Amino acid sequence: MNEKTIIVPDHYKRFVCAADSCPDTCCKGWDIVVDDETLAFYREKGDKRLLERIAPDSDGDMVITFENGVCPFLEGGLCSVQKRYGERRICTTCRVFPRVCHDYTEFEERLLTLACPETARLMIVGREDFRELDGLRVSRTDNGYLREYMNFLLAVRERTFSLLRSDEPFVQKMKSVFSFTEHAQALIDNEIFDEARLDGCPDLSFCGTVQDRARIFGLHSRLDVMDENWLAEAVSCKDEALPDSIDGELASLVLYYAARYTLTAVSSYDVITTIKRAWCAAVVCGALISRENAENDPLRRALIYQKYSKEIEHSDENLDIMTDEFLCGELSSQRMIGNY
What does pTM read for this prediction? Predict the structure, then answer.
């Protein structure tokens, strides 16, 4: 029997829900899907008040219907369903969040999503470097993907990590990351999955001359969000500079994207979009931090990173819009840093 390797970063183990002390509860704004097993339990219990607030959405999923954008079972900042039936009997959506699991057959990575204030504090304000994800390689040929290609992607992610952990200023790091990822993407496009060829990346200090800052904010203005006021504020920050004092946090933000999404290229064959999404997140979050003078307010910065993730990162519709723009639109130029 083949044994699976489970990778659990230290910050994952340290996460504890802030519960009623959370400054932006996950019990509001989201669609909460109730899984079949949990729904069957509620029906067995005959909980009329609970069942009355569960209905099918447009996709056919059974979801909790909110009151003024808030889960009706949130009482005093705590879940009344959990109080009554215990944590094991709340729906999978609520029980698992903000934990995410990426299963690649031979190995599994257990990570945290950034869309929670406490995880944003741990990972970004805490400057997580994701070193537990270094050194991974696969050996089996029955994983459902090409072994050589997965090992190539793992090497791409490690090199990206290394560039982001350097002592260079953040923008310089990103110039290097963009150039390296462009090189890796060219190898993928030509089906060259040789890790040794990654060492042949030309001119890691190159920076494109096209100014894409306005286009980045223009793209965000077209995205689907839950909080329109937040979007208007974010888009209005297009002239704000990235504060030098948060270079380390912005690098950790890009590290987070690289950790979570680089390996999705095993099916998409696209590594450049992950870096473009990360750069957009850094540009917008950095601008909001500058606008709000939050350089010396770690809690406020954590909420800015978390809110961006909640509004932008965790929307399949936004991912589709951004991917189309990155591959076919005005931001299809692979180097997006311009005159930063």
Answer: 0.93
